[in-house]
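REQUEST ID: PR-0412
SUBMITTED BY: lab tech R.K.
PRIORITY: routine
TASK: structure prediction, single protein chain
INPUT:
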Amino acid sequence: MCRIAINLRLFALCLAAHSLVQVARAQDPSEVARPSVLFLNIDDWNDWNSVLKGHPQAITPNIQRLAERGVVFSNAICSSPTCFPSRSAVFTGIHPARSGNIVNDNSIHPWRFYAGDAVTLPKHLSDQGWKSIGIAKNFHNGDRAEFDEYISKQGGRLKQVQGSGINLNPSGVWGVAAVATTEMPDYIAVSRGIEKLTTVNDPLFLSLGIYRPHVPWVVPQEYFDLYPLEEVQFPERRADDLDDLPERFKRLAHLEAKFGPGYHDMLAEKGYDKQFVRAYLACVTFADEQVGRILDAWDASPHAKDGYIALWSDHGYNLGEKEAWSKMKPWYDSAHSNLIIAGPGIPKGAVCDKAVSLQDLYPTLVDLLEIPSPPQQIDGNSLAPLLADPNADWDKPVVMSSETDGIRYDVVLDNDYRMTRLITGETELYHLADDPHEFDNLAPDPQCAPVIDRLSKHLTFHYPKIPEDGWIEAEVIPSQTSSDFRLRGNCHYRRTDPEASGGQLLCAELRAGKGSYLDLVLEVPTAGTYRLGATLSAQGPCEVFVGTVVDDAAQADTGYPMETVATVEPGNGELEDISIGTVTFDSPGLKLLRFQSLVPRQQLRIDRIRLKLQSSKNNQ
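STATUS: complete
OUTPUT:
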């Protein structure tokens, strides 16, 4: 009877959130209840634990005991599968596709550059009467200004036992720590969190970041001993797993821009792949142990009586599935995130298999804590109805946006299917209940066309119609920037500019070397001859190319043969209308418009593109 009453209370909150907020606003601030929140995030932790069952050998008793006291969202994904955009989206409430912060390469600017004057979650709770404390990694740098108190990650680079492990590249490092567990930075960070739970009596928002299992995979020997190398199992994978995918997807899997060609085969040949799996599992168990320590301290503190716990990981991670390593990938292994919420009125030991996103965390806490929404528009859906009834009807597909290896894509997840769409049009589709490892791409099956059509309505990009005068706002055209081996670091984003015709510009930071490019993808409805122009400002000369989109991963490479139109010379720094040249398309369909830098580093700002039909093939 008590459980029924509690759940009815939470359900009423969901149905009347607006009214409750108005009441809270009207109350004397000193009389408003402010339950504490433990906001616990773990870096790069995929579904390898006993809760999500991504790997049968993962030893994770502490996340398991948290799951037994709250709701596990077993079908949660991130908003972007890399740290910088994912974390920024959680704390600002703004989806990466809307902010323009879609990949780690965007971190050439601080996250605040993309968020404008958005009030972050810790700042908003501070404004509402909570004491906000951040410890270690929460945002991706720039934490201090957002919390009442911030304690940075302690310790520098970990020393390793000499001769242990390997160091192939920044994402291929493991070793045995030459320090005791109590000297590990994550252990120290959790100890600081324990101190705050013990000493702070005010309503508390404690946002604590645990860095492992992020690389380098370095932890003390005792954690490796739990996973004897000869007994370590690989994740589920198939030798022919990439055979049913378009070519650009294979490029996404291999991430040659970061690792170079043949990386997966090299790891397998030398046995490094099993070493990496073992090291990752060791780090997972170490991280889980830290989760247990902070949970014990929470339970012993007065904050636990009426407080909430939200545990989340910023994205997933690939360890050989689809021959893929690291994050940044569209597949479920890279997108799947841990998400558990526990607290008063929330069912214990419940599993919700509805499609949800980390983007939902900000609006969910606004509802649970009965506070006003922040002044900015926040994306995502409050999960309060699912916390009241994890089996409630719920049909709200969620979207993940990213770009890797010069390929921009969206992922759309609903309760049954996961779809990826590249801006160049290629699509993959999986039915997760029947195919949890995503071995069989259903996109070519005509019977799945209605599913693809339905999910496509949630994409964050579309191909704008070309008007009669040919002018198209550049910021609404799907775009991507190059990322070649040893030429990584380019990015693009929208930027508000009062001089722009539509109030916004498309900006490209082409900084990875000569040949770096910006691609725009346009859907040309009619074959024929077009006049190409633009309103733009270039800091250096750019060569302009056009071509028809083809199923060839090499088309994402700098130097891929395309039709040369002209060279755009740098101007005076102001936006200028320029005529670029004439192009002829022999067929309708998706076309690439490429601006390729002829200097090692420059910023390109484009207000609009003109593609005006001069004569159609039918009239020639």
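NOTES: Residues 385 and 422 are 33 Å apart (CA to CA).
REVIEWED BY: pending
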